[in-house]
Amino acid sequence: MSAIPGPPLWLLLELTYRCPLHCVFCYNPTDFARTRQELETDDWLRVLREARALGAVQLGLSGGEPLARDDLEIIVAEGHRLGFYVNLITSGVGLSETRIAALKAAGLDHIQLSFQDSSRQMNDFLSSTRTFDLKSKVAALIKKYDYPMVLNVVLHRLNIDHVEEILNMADKLGAEYVELANTQYYGWAFQNRAQLMPSRAQVERAEAVTNRFRERGGRPMKIYFVVPDYFERRPKPCMNGLGSVFLTVTPDGTALPCHAARMLPGFEFPTVREKSVGQIWLESDAFTHWRGDAWMKEPCRSCPEKARDFGGCRCQAYLLTGDAANADPVCDLSPHHHLVTEAVALADGPDVSSVEKPLVFRSQANSEALFP
Amino acid sequence: MSSTPICDASRPAMDRRFRLQWEAAQNAHVLLYPEGMVKLNSSAGEILKRCDGQATIADITADLEQAFATTGLSKDVIAFIAMAVDKHWVTVQS
Questions:
Q1: Could you give the maximum distance between any two Cα atoms of chain B, in Å?
Q2: Residue A9 to residue B16, Cβ atoms within 8 A
Q3: Contact check, Cβ <8 Å, A58/B23
Q4: Which of A22, A117, A229, A297 could form a disulfide with A122 if both were Cys (CB 3.0 to 4.6 A apart)?
Q5: C-alpha span between A52 and A57 (Å, rounded)
Q6: Which of A20-24, A53-57, A298-302, B26-30 comes out lowest in average pLDDT?
Q7: Any bridge partners for residue A153, and if so which?
Q8: B34, A57: Cβ pair inside 8 Å?
Q9: For A65-108, how does the pLDDT look when each residue is reduced to its tens digit (9 = 90+)?
Q10: What is the DSSP string of A99-128?
Q11: CA torsion sign, A49 to A51 to A53 to A59?
Q12: Interface of chain B toward chain A, CB-CB under 8 angstroms
C-alpha cells in the first residue's frame, strides 16, 4: 500500500520442526515432514541482524522444539547482543542444567514452558510421551536460574475441566504468568477439531473458575485466559493484520506473515535464503498484499469495525470457506458463520462421544501418511 | 496494590521482570517483558531511565527539572512512580 509499514516488531523463528512431543493440538503444518533442509546457523544469525536493523525487538525462538538445535545458545547470544528481548518457547525436553546455565550466560530473557495438563496421565497422553515429571524438574530449574516463568497450557475438551488443578499446579511451581490458551484450530489441531472442541458449558465453567482464582489473593500470578474464538461473534484481530507487526521464519527459511500462512494459496512465499528480511517485509507480495483493506470483500470492506479486527484471521477464512479474502467465519456478519456454529453445536451435542475418529498425534509418520 | 508509601525519599528501581530500552526505530523508550512490549511516551521514558535504585524521587525530580529547564515536576513524578509501582514496572525502597 502507500504508507510505509512499521517495523516487524515481533520476529518468531521456528528453528526446527523436530520435536520430542507429539501433541494433538500442535499448530505446525500437518505436512511438516516435507520440509527440506533446516537453515544453517549463519543464516539464522543473518536473519537476526537484518530484522533487528528493521526495528524488530521481540524475538521468539520456537519450533518444533528449539532445544533440538545444538546452536540455540549461539542464536540466543547473537539475539541478545543485538538488543532483542529473547523468549524461548519450549516443551522443556532437553533443558538440562548445563544448557539453562549456558542460555542464561548467552543472555536469554525468558522461558515459556508448556504443560499439556496438571495430571501426569493426561499430560503424557496428550503429548504421547512421558514428560510430566521432566517438565516439573525444568520448572524448578527455571526458578533456580531466576527466570520469570510463563506456563502455557493449551486447553481443549479433554483438559479444560482441569483448569483449577492447572492453576494450582502453576501456583505451586511459582509461575509469574499463566497462559490458558484455548486451542486455535490450525494444523494438527484442525485435523483433530471434532475431538478437541469443548462444549460451551465447559468454556463458561473454565472462565468462571479462572475468575475465582484471580480473586483469591496471595502470590501475584497473572493469568491470561485466551477465549476460543469459535465461541465468539466477532473475530480476533489476528496478528494485528497480516504484515503489520509480525514476521515468522520456518525451519527451511520460508518467511510468513503468521505461523499458519503457508497454507494460503496463490502466494510464492519468499525465503530468507534468497532475499533479505528487509526485501521480504517491504516488497514481497505475501506481506504487502494484506496491508490496508484493498484485499477485503464484503461484508468486511464496508464494515465500520474493519479497522479493529482487520476481518479476523486469513488462515481461518481460507480453512473454513476456501477463500482467504473472505470474512473470518467467526464473525456473525459472515455468510459462512454457520460453519463455526455447526462445529460448536457438534461439541454441545449429546453424541459427541460417538465421534469414532481417532486422535491424530503430530508425528513424522502421521505427517508422511497424510501427505504421501 | 502496593502498600509502600511513595515520597520524595523513595528510591525507585526497575523491576527485574521489565527491561527498559531505547528503540531508535520507534523513536521511543520501550518496556520489554515476556512476549510483550509497552511503548512509552517521552516523559515516562525520561523518568524510568533514572530509576536506578540509587536516586531518590527528589534526586530524579531535580535532575529532570534541570534537564528540561523547568520546575514543579514533583507531583507528576510521584504520581507516575505510583502508577508504575501498581503496574509492577518498578519497585521502591525508602
A1: 38
A2: no
A3: no
A4: A117
A5: 7
A6: A20-24
A7: A115, A180
A8: no
A9: 999 999 999 999 999 999 999 999 999 999 999 999 999 999 99
A10: HHHHHHHHT--EEEEEES-SSHHHHHHHHT
A11: negative
A12: 16-17, 19, 21, 23-26, 30, 32-37, 88
Tell me the shortest Cα–Cα distance from A345 to chain B, in angstroms: 34
All cell numbers assigned to A68: 533440538
Contact partners, residue A204, CB within 8 Å, separation at least 6: none
Q: Which of A135-144, A198-207, A213-222 has the lowest mean pLDDT?
A: A213-222
Locate B81 and state its grid cell.
Answer: 512512580
Contact: A112, B88; criterion CB under 8 Å: no
Beta bridge partners of A10: A58, A246
Determine the residue of chain A that is closest to B88 in CA distance. Answer: A220
- DSSP class of residue A329 equals T
User: Which residues of chain B have a CB within 8 Å of the CB of A83?
Assistant: 21
Q: Write the pLDDT tens digit of every residue in A316-356.
A: 999 999 999 999 999 999 999 999 999 998 888 776 555 56
Q: How far is CA A320 from CA A174, A200, A370, in A?
A: 40, 20, 19
**Which residues, 6 or more positions from A9, have their beta carbon under 8 angstroms from its beta carbon?**
A55, A56, A57, A58, A245, A246, B37
Q: How far is A87 from chain B (nearest CA, A)?
A: 7
Is residue A1 scored above 50 in pLDDT?
no
A255: β partners: A249
Positive or negative, the CA dihedral B30, A238, A177, B4 is positive
List the Cα angle A216/A217/A221 in 5-degree steps: 95
Tell me, rounded to whole angstroms, the distance of Cα A134 from its chain centroid.
22
In whole angstroms, give the CA distance from residue A336 to residue A56. 36
Q: Which of A126, A212, A220 is nearest to A176 (CA)?
A: A220
Cell output for A336: 459462512
Cell of B85: 509501582
Distances (CA, A) of A1 to A191, A268, A288, A325, B34: 35, 19, 7, 16, 32
